[in-house]
Amino acid sequence: MTQWQEPSSTATALLLLGRGSDPGSERGVDCPGELPAASDPGLVERARAAKAALGDRVFVLGHHYQRDEVIEFADVTGDSFKLAQQAAARPDAEFIVFCGVHFMAESADILTTPDQQVVLPDLAAGCSMADMAVLGQVEDCWDALVELGIAGTTVPVTYMNSSADIKGFVGRNGGVVCTSSNAKRALDWAFERGEKVLFLPDQHLGRNTAVLEMGLTLDDCVLYDPHKKNGGLTAEQLTNAKMILWRGHCSVHGRFTLENVQEVRRQRPDVNVLVHPECRHEVVQAADYVGSTEYIIRALDAAEPGSSWAIGTELNLVRRLANAHPDKEVMFLEKTVCYCSTMNRIDLPHLVWSLEELVAGRVPNQITVDADTSRHARTALDRMLALP
Ligand code: 13P
Ligand code: SF4
Asked: GO CC annotation: what is one (predicted)?
């Protein structure tokens, strides 16, 4: 087993307006030429014109957490799972412009043909949760499991919200990727092949799925802290656990609390509380419904006029749902939670800049995953796409 070392800090500095660069973390970008001003009144027209000039050569994907100004130009909107499927479904499109975050664009690159080029309009659009699992840390964890003689019976499962490196690790070690819409099926798949699961990097999705959908207990789960030797766990704890949960979380969904649920119920006894499975266990347990962003949208579509909904997910989506359903009362579960700051990095100026660069024959901010990582990550992604 490799000597345990204090993990080095990951560079996630937010670079102002996406300018400047940090090659180490791939955050930030120098935009060659001028990024249009956000106040430019011609931005919408410029985006329309550039998209029309590119025609079928470009396919724009938009995650549900994107701003309205960006969603307006998406050919398809979806949750992480649907967007991964869609990226693979358009081999004729020369360019995939991914309005989402870095790990989604990486997955699109892995799932598209070598001739297709994937563009992320602002490289500062990362994900703090994905940054919580670094390959070296995961390899150290696996070494610890090997040392204990339990790696052979452990199946690694990674949430889509992880780097291509981590997906490659999982593919190489017999595991599978999951999203919030298929986590139970991925865990079923894993437990058919092993006795325990190493779940990366979202402890909440792992715990919520294991306990609320798979019938495991909280005692079956242990929390592996990558900043501590052996995850801060004893050999006995690791050996006895069925779910080894990585200590990662979403900084947006992690902020909803049980008190938020109790408070909204006090104010509106008839309210339906609907949350994303990235929320903490006690929040999901206290909610009425839980599901991915696609599930949340479908639940609102099917809701009775006049019904009342408190939603625990990112604000752009909740605000769009409130506007789309004026006949229902749609509120945000917590008053002070903000947008996902990295999803919000993709704004109209960056989208216009990316599209106009493509029109000019230059490919900006291309996301490429190296061939070896891509091959193994693809194995793990294909296993997910083939889940029953
Ligand atoms: P889904 O798209 O799977 O609902 O996940 C939400 C999310 O946090 C994406 O970053
Ligand atoms: Fe990452 Fe959370 Fe933002 Fe999704 S909402 S991109 S998980 S920080």
From this structure: cytosol
